[in-house]
Amino acid sequence: MVWVLISLAPPFAWGVYIFGFRAAVVVGIAVLSAVLTEGLLNLAFGRASSLGDLSAVVTGVLVGFNMPPQVSLFIPALASVFAIAVVKWSFGGLGANWMNPAMAGRVFVFYSWGAEMTHFTAPRTLIADSISGATPLETVRGNLLGFTMDKLAGEPAGGPMELLEMSGFSASYLDLWIGRMAGSLGEVSALLLALGAVILTIKRILNWEIPLAYIGSFALLIWLFDGIQYGGGAFTGDVLFHLLTGGLMLGAFYMATDLVTTPLTRPGRIVFGLGCGFLTFVIRRFGSLAEGVSLAIIFMNILVPLINRFTKPRRYGVQP
Predict the structure, then answer these.
(1) What is the pLDDT of residues 79-100, one digit of tens each?
(2) Which of 130, 197, 274, 310 has the fewest CB atoms within 10 Å around its CB?
(3) CB-based contacts of 82, cutoff 8 Å, min separation 6
(4) In the chain, how long is the greatest CA-to-CA distance?
(5) CB atoms within 10 A of CB 69
(6) Residue extents of the structural domains in the chain
(7) In whole angstroms, how far apart are CA 105 and each of 15, 121, 144?
(8) Whole-angstrom distance, CA of residue 51 vs CA of residue 65
(9) pLDDT by residue (tens digit) across 99-127?
(10) What span, in angstroms and rounded, lies between the C-alpha atoms of 52 and 50?
């Protein structure tokens, strides 16, 4: 847990830098709520304190990372309470929950306070304060209707970056890679999240199978089919845009890899990652939501017992 927190420190610092100190307050409220809930439940059930394992702190940080920078402070607090009390403790505590607590907390508040959870701010500058702004994924989704009209007129839009330019969103792939865009405060910098994942992989904390299968399958499906809706045909999807925007990097490296809620074997983890990639693509491409990472991971969490059953290793000396 300590190394997870260390790996999350750079994206946290970047979120505070581009969105202002309130980003730190949002994460702090989420962490404080998670820790208090964990401590109170320990007292209520007469258990020894579990705060020392830092799992509640990690859950709070990840909840905060999934929040818009200007969200009302009661929302990350309630998300953390739901994550710890309902998802983690109602099933027996650390190691017994069947769903990623932080991801479940995020989904709970997303569908309860949708307007708040979809109100983002653009990165602040040295000259002006933050202003309201849609995420790149939301901007592209909003412009697809206009593209449909262009398509009927025989004028393909080209791709998501072109649709961003139609909205006056002048950004390069480098901006998306670094994290100069609107979004949840901890998910915007794909670069720093990837660097954190490298640290965890070197320390043998992160299982590489899930992120590789997740990102690889999603990228392949985007390349094969996503370009069709922009008039470019198959094999023309903008893979970089979809990898660098939204919560894919945060979800693939820090949410989908939760050891408690993922399969036990390497083949099972690969199947899990492939399922996450497929569902994220389906939701982004055909669903009404611009994002699909949260729902994809939660749905695959539900299937983990089934995946474990069909991918468990054969015991030595036992007939198949």
Answers:
(1) 999 999 999 998 888 888 889 9
(2) 310
(3) 104, 105, 108, 109
(4) 71
(5) 28
(6) 2-117, 207-311
(7) 20, 21, 30
(8) 20
(9) 999 999 999 999 999 999 988 888 875 44
(10) 5
